[in-house]
Design brief:
There is one protein chain. The chain starts with a helix and ends with a helix. The chain is of the alpha/beta class and about 500 residues long. The protein is about 35% helix and about 20% strand. It contains 17 helices and 19 strands. It has helices at about 5-20, 25-40, 45-50, 50-55, 60-70, 75-85, 120-135, 170-175, 190, 195-205, 220-235, 255-265, 385-400, 435-450, 450-460, 470-480, 495-510; strands spanning about 100-105, 110-115, 150, 160, 165, 185, 215, 250, 270-280, 280-285, 295, 305-310, 330, 340-345, 350-360, 365-375, 405-415, 420-430, 460-470. A hairpin with a 4-residue loop joins strand 4 (about 160) and strand 5 (about 165). It folds into three domains: about 25-100 and about 115-120 and about 295-375, no CATH class; about 125-285, Rossmann fold, CATH 3.40.50; about 380-510, 2-Layer Sandwich (GMP Synthetase, Chain A, domain 3), CATH 3.30.300. A twelve-stranded mixed sheet has the order 6-3-7-8-9-10-11-16-15-14-12-13. Strands 2-1-5-4 form a four-stranded mixed sheet. It has a three-stranded mixed sheet with strand order 17-18-19, with helices on both faces. It is globular.
């Protein structure tokens, strides 16, 4: 009998009932978060430069903050402040960060270094505990709470620099695992610290029979590859043959839907899929209840949020943010509208534009979904295709053709013969076959029906579509040759012309 599982489940349910995780007054909670952040950092160089002390005395602290402190993207924040923070204390946050998260996103540019302070780690763990408490909303057996949790992260082998350690955020989080998690966490720090992705997954496959995994966590593309390796190495039909108690998968990093068909084919029966919004800059939202993939915004865990409408009120026709965009806080967001997310956090990120767009689906529950990337807005010829619309088009393609497109990318290229723009798609197929011309027809028809701007563009400047179908493994091989394979790395959904030409050249020559 799962005695300890019953105890843990009862404790979670009791705490969730008596001390609900969500703030009873989210508006007040957000003002409290902002006030605490400003108070803590008022004597830093950043706090003095932007006069946090004066902002704290304002009658309307949110408006004063918005008026006194400009919006920052990574390049601006790093050049003006974070570069100094690596060597000097008290720049954007008290002291010096012990960690920096490396994040190049999916652009292929030189890695960004995002500060990760002790306070930010605590903030992330608070949000993680809040999601764990929400398991009370799900009807799980008590013995699940005694099972192992397999977290597929990037390498936890952090690199020592001049007074700090650096690595990808998932590796940093694993290296700072709370003590109470150590008995449940798999694959364990020794395996997690293996730098080579293929070697790490091989070790997981070898050790898998020793574990009783009840929950998985990680980016879906690499999770699928890991599960397939475990199945192949142990000569299984599905993953439940080795982990019969597997009941939860916590996904994140990219949209899950394009991977659902492949992921579910590796199971013996359905499991609960929970989404998370965990970025290098923080843990911002989590799935808190059954029957939805929408996530609850973490309004009461040490971070302050603002939003810029991802339309003409905040961005120009090229997708570049305006010099004076409309910026609102949580009180004024509307359901169904795409917003660029702006965060202020205890990592010393101030009015920082993450680069993601979000859309609220339920204001009463504070739930939202990630709708795309500000920089993945494919709009070279006015097509205005968000990542959300691209993902939906691929899901429609899979449904109508029976194919399993696991990865994809698209970008605008000029035709050599006349200089006119076309959209070049590269589809990474998991298995089976897919005719490129059929794929072109389905994608074009779907997007014209779903997006009036795309339909207009197809009648004018966007002259054609080109579709190239490749095994998904060849797309991953492209990442590998740029040393971007495994863990938390995401394949880009939209590529600039130069990067897309590089991919096509690789596919032609490999």
């Amino acid at each position: 009998m799962a005695f300890f599982g019953h105890v843990i489940k009862a404790l979670i349910q009791t705490k969730h009932t008596l001390l609900p995780h969500e703030p009873t007054d989210p508006e007040a909670a957000q003002e409290d978060q902002l006030r605490h952040l400003l108070e803590t950092a008022k004597d830093t160089a950043f706090g003095k430069y932007y006069n946090f002390a004066r902002i704290l005395e304002a009658e309307d602290i949110r408006t004063a903050y918005r008026e006194e402190v400009p919006l920052f993207d990574y390049d601006e924040m790093n050049e003006e402040w974070w570069r100094k923070q690596r060597h000097d204390p008290d720049i954007t946050w008290p002291g010096r960060p012990r960690f920096f998260a490396l994040s190049s996103g999916t652009t292929g540019k030189k890695s960004k270094r995002i500060p990760v302070t002790d306070e930010m780690l605590e903030c992330t763990q608070q949000v993680g505990r809040a999601q764990a408490e929400c398991l009370a909303n799900f009807d799980f057996d008590a013995d699940l709470f005694e099972k192992d949790i397999l977290m597929l992260s990037s390498s936890a082998q952090l690199r020592e620099r001049d007074g700090w350690q650096e690595g990808e955020i998932s590796g940093i989080n694993v290296s700072n695992m709370p003590e109470f998690m150590e008995g449940f966490y798999k694959p364990g720090l020794e395996i997690a610290q293996i730098d080579n992705w293929d070697e790490r997954v091989q070790r997981i496959a070898e050790e898998a029979p020793k574990w009783d995994v009840g929950a998985l966590a990680g980016i879906p593309s690499w999770m699928v590859m890991m599960l397939r390796k475990v199945i192949e190495h142990n000569k299984l039909k599905n993953i439940h043959e080795i982990w019969p108690n597997l009941a939860i998968y916590t996904t994140g990093g990219v949209a899950f839907e394009p991977y659902r068909q492949t992921f579910e084919s590796l199971l013996a029966h359905p499991i609960t899929i929970m989404d998370t919004y965990l970025a290098s800059e923080g843990f911002f939202a989590f799935n808190a209840r059954p029957d939805t993939m929408a996530m609850e915004l973490a309004l009461d865990h040490g971070m302050y949020f603002e939003f810029v409408p991802h339309d003409e009120r905040g961005f120009d026709e090229t997708g570049t943010i305006l010099k004076k965009p409309m910026v609102i806080d949580y009180r004024d967001v509307e359901e169904g509208v795409d917003y660029a997310l702006i965060v202020s956090t205890p990592a010393g990120a101030w009015r920082y534009m993450i680069g993601d767009t979000v859309k609220f689906t339920d204001l009463e529950r504070m739930e939202m979904v990630i709708s795309g990337r500000t920089k993945y807005f494919l709009n070279v010829v006015g097509s205005q295709l968000s990542e959300e619309k691209l993902n939906t088009a691929i899901a429609d393609l899979n449904e109508k053709t029976g194919a399993t497109v696991k990865e994809f990318t698209v970008g605008a290229l000029k035709r050599e013969e006349d200089g006119e723009y076309v959209h070049q798609w590269v589809l990474g197929l998991e298995n089976g076959e897919l005719d490129a011309e059929e794929a072109k027809s389905v994608l074009d028809s779907h997007l014209q029906e779903a997006n009036k701007n795309y339909k207009v563009a197809r009648q004018k400047a966007l002259k054609d579509l080109r579709v190239r179908v490749e095994p998904a493994d060849r797309l991953y091989a492209f990442l590998e040759q740029t040393k971007k394979k495994g863990g938390q790395i995401k394949f880009p959904k939209v590529m600039p012309e130069e990067k897309l030409q590089e991919l096509l050249s690789f596919l032609n020559n490999s």
